[in-house]
Amino acid sequence: MFSKKNLLLLIPICFFFQSICAQTLYSRAYGKRINPAIIYVHGGPRGNSTLFEGTTAQTLADLGFYVIAYDRRGEGRSSDPSARVTYAEAINDLNGLMAQYKLKKVSLIGHSFGGLVSTLFTQQYPQKVERLILVAALFAQQESYDHILNSATVEAFQKEDTLVLKKIALIKTLDTASAKYRQLVYELGSSFGYFKMPNPTKESISVNRWYETGVFFKQNIRNDQAPILFYQNEPRRNIDTKNILSALPGRGVKLFGIYGQNDGIFSKKQLLDLKKIIGSNNLFLIDNCSHYPFVDQQSVFLKDVKSIMLK
């Protein structure tokens, strides 16, 4: 049996180990701490921040921002065998990251699946988010899945590709809130080039080459178990956040979006819906650009972020 004295001795030890656990996430800051803070939230689940770090983080910081990139628990370089890979875990860790860097209020760049994480974080902590910047960010998952399947069906019919049509028929029989459904839909979209810019430019080729020959490409760690854990442990597996986004300006959050005109996972209707939510002046659509605006059209992306940060 512990005495009160022994219990008091244990308290600082517990806090010590809690602190160590809180620092297990990979993170890195770019730029001067005195500048406006931006946290980049990567895609996934199974993603990491290496592409953003290896191409854009320092360049964005050089424009006068304090940029922080990190990998979520159980993903990328933030290895954790006990990670559950849920939204609650991600929100808690993002909150802890802000505390670690002593940030009271930030702007969030949520890319792809990271847009969902950022949106749910902002819903829970609106007082901590100055701007929510959605970059090729998911906000209505089933609508995106349906768009990919419908677009691929049209292309497969035109090519008389019976194998692809059979695959699409199979996908449509699966549980839409399952890891397998998500995986096969995205694999289908990728096979049709929905994630690639139509016409690579000299700049995009150079940016990609810079990443592929740099140190961050070697750190491109992927945890294949992350999507499985997410779909096992997270009840909100296929969500629509339009209503959440609509409520955020009333809670003091500035909303923005940067999307590629050629991003094959969003329909024109989806982008129109998003424009109605965040305002036409706050949605930046980039030509000849798909799912990775900071790589496909880096100069335009940086200009748009700089413009957003002044609003």
TrEMBL record:
One of its GO terms (biological process) is proteolysis. InterPro entries: AB_hydrolase_1 (IPR000073), AB_hydrolase_fold (IPR029058), AB_hydrolase_sf (IPR050266), Peptidase_S33 (IPR002410). Pfam families: Abhydrolase_1. GO terms for cellular component: membrane. Residues 36-296 form the AB hydrolase-1 domain. GO terms for molecular function: peptidase activity. Keywords: Hydrolase, Signal. Residues 1-22 form the signal peptide. The keyword Metal-binding does not apply. Belongs to the peptidase S33 family. This is Proline iminopeptidase.
